[in-house]
Amino acid sequence: MFGKITFILIVVIFIVLAIMFDWFGSRELAKQGVDKAQVAVEHLESTGDKVSDVIESINEKEGK
Known about the structure:
Elements: H1 2-20, H2 26-63
């Protein structure tokens, strides 16, 4: 158990150092990953807003 946690911690530290010092072009990869994550979050926000609008519309129709 302790060995697995240590291994994961070492990998995370290596990734952080790689981004900090731009080893292997890792900064560009990290930026691309963040950009893709941002697009995914925006899509989820849009979908959530649409679902909320539909639910509000249904609730208004039931209330009348």
